[in-house]
């Protein structure tokens, strides 16, 4: 299977902290949930995949080529979408102006851009606020503007760092439906702390623990792990319990648990 994104022996260090430690991973078409405790390395991975942070060492291949080559990196940036954990925007821009600005940064043809902007804003349910200044929107609406700018170019690789933070329950449900739709054709990687996001929208889960892959498998298989004997006290639902079991095994030094899917494809 061709992977839109793969990393081999990826190490990321921030001064003396090793955020990712020689990680091998590959992601193909579908929705991939990235789970892990605070500080596990999820954002560090997403930033490398978004080409905003260089790896300390290791190989990163995106959309068919090595991104250490500047020309390929530029080509990749036009075809990816990225919502950072802390998303910077211009509060004086309207929603339309801001999403159009990102379309321009991605060098989208001018003729296609204005319909793409309206389409992306409609997909996040903000059509009625498209000409409102971003500073007048609620926090959840601003998050939705962030999702709109990430999908305006119909990306082949979509990277979303905690996209559901700040969304109300109804918006989260709509957003998960959007994720499923996007994951039919694109490779979507979503970091989240909400196991409901994973259960409802993801085709595959990657659990990162202290800079390494602790688990890889389907949400169903992770839930099955949580049904095993002894896991009753670890969480409120099977996926939460599976998450706890996989992390404990990982911390005790076991090799990554995988079920059905291999760690590197
Ligand atoms: N700019 C930085 N300078 C120093 N250390 C950093 C920096 N960015 C991240 N780290 C450290 O690297 C490790 C991984 O952080 P990262 O943000 O990738 O984790 P995360 O899984 O995204 O966490 P969270 O769930 O809290 O967002 C942590 O120990 C963090 O403190």
TrEMBL record:
Q: What is this protein called?
A: Putative ABC transporter ATP-binding protein
Q: What domain of life does the native source organism fall in?
A: Bacteria
Molecular functions (GO terms): ATP binding; ATP hydrolysis activity
The record places domain ABC transporter at 5-235
Q: Give the Gene3D superfamilies listed for this entry.
A: P-loop containing nucleotide triphosphate hydrolases
Q: Which Pfam families match?
A: ABC_tran
UniProt key word Transport: yes
User: In which family does this protein belong, per the annotation?
Assistant: Belongs to the ABC transporter superfamily.
User: Lineage of this protein's species?
Assistant: Bacteria, Bacillati, Actinomycetota, Actinomycetes, Kitasatosporales
Question: Which PROSITE patterns does this chain map to?
Answer: ABC_TRANSPORTER_2 (PS50893)
State the SMART domains in the record.
AAA
Keywords assigned: ATP-binding, Nucleotide-binding, Transport
* PANTHER family in the record: ABC TRANSPORTER, ATP-BINDING PROTEIN
Enumerate the InterPro entries for this protein: AAA+_ATPase (IPR003593), ABC_transporter-like_ATP-bd (IPR003439), P-loop_NTPase (IPR027417)
To which species is this protein native?
Streptomyces bingchenggensis (strain BCW-1)
């Amino acid at each position: 299977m061709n992977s839109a994104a793969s990393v081999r022996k990826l190490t990321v260090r921030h001064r003396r902290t090793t955020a990712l430690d020689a990680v091998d991973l590959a992601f193909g078409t579908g929705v991939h949930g990235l789970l892990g405790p605070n500080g596990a390395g999820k954002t560090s991975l997403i930033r490398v995949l978004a080409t905003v942070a260089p790896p300390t060492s290791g190989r990163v291949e995106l959309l068919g080529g090595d991104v250490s080559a500047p020309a390929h990196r530029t080509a990749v940036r036009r075809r990816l979408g990225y919502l950072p954990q802390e998303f910077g925007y211009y509060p004086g821009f309207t929603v339309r102006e801001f999403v159009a600005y990102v379309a321009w940064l991605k060098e989208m043809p001018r003729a296609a851009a204005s319909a793409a902007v309206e389409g992306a804003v409609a997909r996040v349910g903000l059509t009625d606020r498209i000409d409102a200044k971003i500073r007048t929107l609620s926090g959840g609406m601003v998050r939705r503007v962030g999702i709109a700018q990430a999908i305006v170019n119909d990306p082949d690789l979509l990277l979303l760092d905690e996209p559901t933070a700040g969304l109300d329950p109804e918006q989260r449900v709509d957003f998960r439906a959007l994720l499923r739709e996007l994951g039919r054709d694109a490779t979507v990687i979503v970091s989240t702390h909400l196991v409901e996001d994973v259960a409802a929208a993801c085709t595959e889960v990657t659990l990162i623990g202290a800079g390494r892959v602790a688990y890889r498998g389907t949400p169903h298989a992770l839930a099955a792990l949580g049904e095993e004997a002894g896991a009753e006290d670890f969480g409120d639902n099977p996926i939460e319990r599976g998450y706890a079991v996989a992390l404990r095994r990982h911390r005790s030094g076991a090799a990554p648990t995988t079920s059905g899917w291999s760690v590197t494809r």
